[in-house]
């Protein structure tokens, strides 16, 4: 017996087409983010650039991911008109997804640890989202699935879909943008690109792109304290888990996420939380602005690589990401009381940073 089933619906297809148009129009109104020079002594022979992702409409690197995730979910037919969207997020991804959900008239719920910064919670709610808190960081996944099932919604699941939602071959992804902006610099092909591991999507996109475009650039991924990515990558054990959440919001996970592609990474660097926080406080004086904790993690790893290049007599450039602005962390990383309550001593990393900027030597003892 021959038969057919037609599940198409003109109304659904019309909504999908309009939703894609709305998202693409929003992207078309947004200029690319700037590539800033970080001042280093000319005699070092190393140029350092920060891709300033804080200039996106929602203020962080996660704006790119949220756009890609919505397009991916819509074009897969997972999100349609009035679909509640649920996401597990420690903050910035949820801020950006709340923005796109409101753009499309969709309800949005962010499932997050109760320790998420108040500034990020306020931003999510300002964009029309609702925050749903859990006490254990690892519970965000199961709680997100439960809510999606209960509400008949869609769990966006950035940690599973980040590496596949973005076109790593190009199409104005962050890697292609970096290389286009470096085209007229003296070291147009950087020696290193340095990023953090959160979902794993950014490192996967950049690592794949470097190979696809046959660049000699290497990819270094920094990982904060209490995150499992570094240990799992070092030992080849993707089952590694941790019962402690990372203090550095946006990067670091208690498990190896499905979007993390370790084979695309050339080097990983473990960064203590105190070092990440000391770095953002130090570079405020250099940049004249505050940056978020993940940017501090990035720069701590970058400074180690700069020193290594100097010691080896190599000249070249390094690119990293300025992931978001420091205004989101006034009551956490920039609050002395908050730092003291967590038993963090910033004096050691502060001395390392001062010595590095004066001499080019990066002396750390873990």
UniProtKB/TrEMBL annotation:
Biological process terms in GO annotation: L-cysteine catabolic process to pyruvate
Main location: cytoplasm
GO molecular function terms attached to this record: lyase activity; pyridoxal phosphate binding
InterPro entries cross-referenced by the UniProt entry: Cds1, Cys_Synth/Cystath_Beta-Synth, TrpB-like_PALP, TrpB-like_PALP_sf
Catalyzed reactions per annotation: L-cysteine + H2O = hydrogen sulfide + pyruvate + NH4(+) + H(+)
UniProt entry tagged with the keyword Kinase: no
Compartments where located: Cytoplasm
Alphabetical UniProt keywords: Cytoplasm, Lyase, Pyridoxal phosphate
Annotated Tryptophan synthase beta chain-like PALP domain residues: 32-324
General function of this protein: A cysteine desulfhydrase that generates hydrogen sulfide, H(2)S. The H(2)S produced by this enzyme stimulates respiration in M.tuberculosis, mediated primarily via cytochrome bd with a lesser contribution from cytochrome bc1/aa3. H(2)S modulates the balance between respiration and glycolysis, and also contributes to redox homeostasis. Probably eliminates toxic levels of Cys (which can induce oxidative stress). A cysteine desulfhydrase that generates hydrogen sulfide, H(2)S. The H(2)S produced by this enzyme modulates the balance between respiration and glycolysis, and contributes to redox homeostasis. Probably eliminates toxic levels of Cys (which can induce oxidative stress).
Name of the protein: L-cysteine desulfhydrase Cds1
Protein source organism: Saccharopolyspora thermophila
Gene: cds1
């Amino acid at each position: 017996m021959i038969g057919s089933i037609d599940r198409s619906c003109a109304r659904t297809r019309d909504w999908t087409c309009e939703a894609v148009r709305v998202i693409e129009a929003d992207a078309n109104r947004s200029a690319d983010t700037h590539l800033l020079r970080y001042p280093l002594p000319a005699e070092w022979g190393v140029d350092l650039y920060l891709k300033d992702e804080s200039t996106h409409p929602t203020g962080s690197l996660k704006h790119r991911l949220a756009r890609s995730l919505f397009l991916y979910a819509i074009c897969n037919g997972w999100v349609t008109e009035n679909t509640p969207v649920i996401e597990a997020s420690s903050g910035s991804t949820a801020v950006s997804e709340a923005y796109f959900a409101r753009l499309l008239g969709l309800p949005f719920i962010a499932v997050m640890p109760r320790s998420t910064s108040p500034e990020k919670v306020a931003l999510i709610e300002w964009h029309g989202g609702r925050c749903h808190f859990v006490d254990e960081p690892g519970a965000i996944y199961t709680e997100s699935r439960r809510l999606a099932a209960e509400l008949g919604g869609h769990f966006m699941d950035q940690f599973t879909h980040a590496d596949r939602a973005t076109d790593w071959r190009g199409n104005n992804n962050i890697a292609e943008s970096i290389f286009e902006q470096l085209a007229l610099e003296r070291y147009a092909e950087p020696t290193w690109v340095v990023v953090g591991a959160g979902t794993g999507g950014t490192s996967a996109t950049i690592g794949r792109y470097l190979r696809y475009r046959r660049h000699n650039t290497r990819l270094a991924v920094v990982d904060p304290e209490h995150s499992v990515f570094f240990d799992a990558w070092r030992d080849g054990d993707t089952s590694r888990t941790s019962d402690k959440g990372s203090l550095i919001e946006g990067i670091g996970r208690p498990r190896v996420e499905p979007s993390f592609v370790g084979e695309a990474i050339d080097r990983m660097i473990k960064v203590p939380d105190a070092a990440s926080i000391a770095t953002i406080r130090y570079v405020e004086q250099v940049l004249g602005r505050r940056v978020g904790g993940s940017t501090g993690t990035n720069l701590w790893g970058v400074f180690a690589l700069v020193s290594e290049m100097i010691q080896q007599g190599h000249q070249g450039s390094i690119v990293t990401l300025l992931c978001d602005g420091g205004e989101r962390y006034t009551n956490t990383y920039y609050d002395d009381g908050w730092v003291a309550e967590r038993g963090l001593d910033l004096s050691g990393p502060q001395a390392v940073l001062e010595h590095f900027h004066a001499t080019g030597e990066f002396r750390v003892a873990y």
